[in-house]
């Protein structure tokens, strides 16, 4: 008797759990089907002016970027276009150290020894020693960040751009551990607090706290036929084009100049080339 | 059997209330973290994983160590461990639960957690970590529960449990291997980029877990009528001895490769941890303490008379546990992030809120462990009576 009742309660309990547990799963399936049905009617068309490529790449001519002043407008153009918060821009200086830890960067400057730590030497020539280097996401051909992402929130697009879905990212930061270039930033806090209304670009989404972000090679601008913001602001110091199109500007530059890439030995296939 | 967890002495309920209080405080701070984001932690753009993930790493090891009881008991038919295998399995349940909670408190967007299931990505090691951790939790729940129930009813456990027990052996190895693969497959992180990482993790786990179990057994003997047994504790002590020696040996293998090859990207992390780098070295005293504790414990454990004396054994176990905890729970994760891939040295120190949340999660583990151990011990007392 005792054992029968116990058994019944057990079965009843497990069944209740099963039903409760299965419901959201069933719902998820249902909504997926609905979504598919909706998608069937929608044809996604590319903008006629959209720029396409097999692997977008960039050649940065450091001979044309001599000083911090030359880099500043480029960085500003990018960060403004993409609503990248300037967390250092506060009146409250006592939080500076904290803010420094939470800084968001899509494109920024580094010294040679930091941009190319494996190539650095004590007896570097004076020009390189003092030259500011622009660094950004390398949109690797074989990106480790994409490999590790548990939700496909970071993915490689057919045109080679390593893109992020800010709405899918769970903020596990595995991609930040995987990136050998430190190209990724995490929103440790609400970034919107640091974007003034008058500075906000309504054409590009702002992010919420708890997600990772990085350079997107201006996918949203390429889609409407525009060059990336940094390229536009660089006065010809940055070239952008299809790595697999022999006629592209980047290929012409690669053919006629010696270029280096960051941590090439890791096999990630970085798509940012530097003329030094 | 669960009814046994709500029957007990005043002391038992007092302890549970205390633990619940700690959990409550941790939870409040977690709500604060949910509202204001991970900015309340010490993590940064450069050190993007900190204390939470480090505790996850350490506790996966404690969980996996249940296999050190399961193998002798079920594969070698070592009957003595029949008395305490359940304690190992219940320790595993509490530890894995803490692991999963540490993943959750570390997420920037925890409400999107189920994206991992909605968009399964077999190429991601984190996806597999979720699979093996949850699988291990359920395996131990099912096995532990059924074996204990059978013991209570004084019948042999149902036959279908056996295959699950055999499955739990490689599964235990897998949880810590996969956890090591989270780190050792990343191209730009020299500290972790080593094939010895998974073996190191396992060896330190098989030292730390049984050490904790020995301490728990000694405690159980003191506060309950159930005696886990002298022989059992001594067998655990031998396992700990082998495991901690292996762990230090693996560490020296790593040191040799790193410092004889002299490849800077690999050396710099060790330099940061053990001597400091460019004037930064918050972890230096800790890392030496860790190594010192492990070597000290080896010296104690290899001397038979010291190992056989339960008082000195307890001291050795504390040394093993503390040494391996510092190594994994403090050095392993931030050591891999400093210096960063651009060779900037930005250190990590956990903040008070971060520590309070961590203690809160440990509180949940202690709560589960107390309840489960209470259940197991009550049944052992019942059967003996």
Brief write-up:
The complex is a heterodimer of chains A (276) and B (385). With 276 residues, chain A is of the alpha+beta class.
CATH homologous superfamily heading of chain B: Formate dehydrogenase/DMSO reductase domain
Number of strands of chain A: 10
Give helix % range of chain A: 25-40%
CATH topology of chain B: Formate dehydrogenase/DMSO reductase fold
Strand tally of chain B: 0
- Class from helix and strand fractions of chain A: alpha+beta
Question: Biggest interface between protein chains, with counts per chain?
Answer: A-B, 51 and 46 residues
Shape annotation of chain A: globular
Elements of chain B, N to C (H/E) = HHHHHHHHHHHHHH
Quick one: CATH class of chain B? Answer: Mainly Alpha
Q: What is the overall number of helices of chain A?
A: 10
InterPro entries (chain A): 4Fe4S_Fe-S-bd, 4Fe4S_Fe_S_CS, DsrO-like, ET_IronSulfur_Cluster-Binding, TAT_signal
Keywords (chain A): 4Fe-4S, Iron, Iron-sulfur, Metal-binding
GO molecular function (chain A): 4 iron, 4 sulfur cluster binding; metal ion binding
Pfam families (chain A): Fer4_11
Primary descriptors:
heterodimer, A: 276 residues, alpha+beta, Alpha-Beta Plaits, 2 domains, 4-stranded mixed sheet, two-stranded antiparallel ribbon, B: globular, Redox complex linked to DsrAB, transmembrane subunit (chain B)
């Amino acid at each position: 008797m005792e054992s029968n009742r116990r058994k019944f309660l057990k079965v009843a309990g497990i069944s209740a759990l099963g039903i409760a547990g299965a419901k959201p799963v069933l719902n998820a399936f249902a909504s997926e089907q609905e979504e598919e049905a909706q998608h069937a009617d929608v044809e996604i068309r590319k903008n006629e002016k959209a720029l396409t490529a097999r692997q977008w790449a960039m050649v940065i001519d450091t001979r044309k970027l001599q000083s911090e002043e030359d880099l500043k407008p480029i960085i500003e153009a990018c960060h403004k276009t993409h609503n990248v918060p300037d967390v250092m821009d506060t009146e409250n200086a006592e939080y500076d150290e904290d803010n420094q830890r939470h800084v968001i960067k899509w494109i920024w400057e580094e010294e040679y020894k930091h941009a190319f730590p494996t190539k650095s030497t004590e007896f570097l020539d004076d020009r390189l020693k003092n030259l500011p280097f622009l660094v950004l996401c390398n949109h690797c051909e074989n990106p480790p960040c994409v490999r590790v992402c548990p939700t496909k929130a970071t993915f490689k697009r057919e045109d080679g751009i390593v893109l992020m879905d800010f709405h899918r990212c769970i903020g596990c930061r595995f991609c930040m551990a995987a990136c050998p270039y430190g190209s990724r930033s995490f929103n440790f806090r609400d970034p919107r607090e640091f974007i003034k209304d008058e500075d906000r670009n309504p054409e590009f989404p702002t992010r919420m706290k708890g997600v990772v972000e990085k350079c997107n090679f201006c996918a949203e601008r390429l889609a409407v036929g525009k060059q990336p913001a940094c390229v536009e602001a660089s006065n010809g110091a940055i070239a952008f084009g299809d790595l697999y199109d022999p006629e592209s500007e980047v290929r012409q530059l690669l053919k006629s100049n010696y270029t280096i890439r960051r941590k090439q030995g890791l096999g990630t296939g970085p798509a940012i080339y530097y003329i030094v | 059997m669960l009814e046994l967890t709500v029957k007990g002495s005043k002391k038992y309920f007092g302890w549970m209330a205390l633990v619940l209080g700690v959990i409550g405080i941790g939870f409040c701070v977690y709500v604060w973290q949910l509202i204001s984001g991970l900015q309340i932690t010490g993590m940064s753009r450069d050190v993007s994983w900190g204390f939470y993930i480090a505790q996850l790493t350490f506790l996966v090891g404690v969980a996996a160590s249940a296999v050190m009881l399961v193998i002798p008991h079920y594969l070698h038919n070592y009957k003595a461990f029949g008395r305490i295998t359940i304690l190992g399995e219940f320790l595993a349940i509490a530890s894995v639960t803490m692991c999963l909670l540490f993943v959750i408190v570390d997420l920037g967007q925890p409400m999107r957690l189920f994206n991992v299931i909605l968009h399964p990505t077999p190429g991601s090691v984190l996806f597999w970590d979720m699979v093996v951790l949850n699988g291990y939790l359920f395996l131990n729940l099912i096995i532990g529960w059924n074996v204990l129930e059978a013991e209570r009813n004084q019948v042999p456990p149902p036959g279908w449990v056996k295959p699950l027990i055999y499955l739990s052996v490689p599964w235990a190895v897998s949880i810590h291997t996969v956890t090591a693969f989270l780190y050792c497959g990343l191209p730009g992180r020299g500290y972790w980029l080593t094939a010895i990482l998974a073996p190191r993790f396992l060896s330190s786990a098989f030292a730390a877990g049984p050490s904790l179990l020995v301490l728990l057994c000694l405690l159980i003997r003191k506060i309950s009528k159930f005696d886990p047994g002298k022989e059992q504790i001594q067998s655990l002590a031998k396992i700990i001895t082998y495991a901690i020696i292996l762990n230090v040996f693996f560490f020296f293998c790593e040191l040799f490769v790193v410092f004889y090859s002299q490849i800077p990207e690999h050396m710099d992390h060790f330099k940061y941890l053990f001597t400091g780098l460019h004037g930064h070295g918050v972890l230096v005293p800790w890392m030496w303490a860790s190594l010192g504790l492990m070597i000290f414990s080896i010296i104690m454990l290899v001397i038979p008379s010291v190992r056989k004396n339960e008082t000195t054994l307890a001291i050795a176990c504390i040394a093993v546990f503390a040494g391996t905890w510092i190594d994994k729970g403090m050095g392993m994760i931030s050591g891999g992030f400093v210096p960063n891939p651009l060779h900037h040295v930005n250190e990590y120190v956990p903040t008070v809120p971060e520590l309070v949340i961590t203690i809160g999660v440990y509180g949940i583990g202690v709560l589960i462990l107390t309840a489960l151990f209470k259940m197991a011990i009550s049944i052992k007392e019942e059967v003996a009576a």
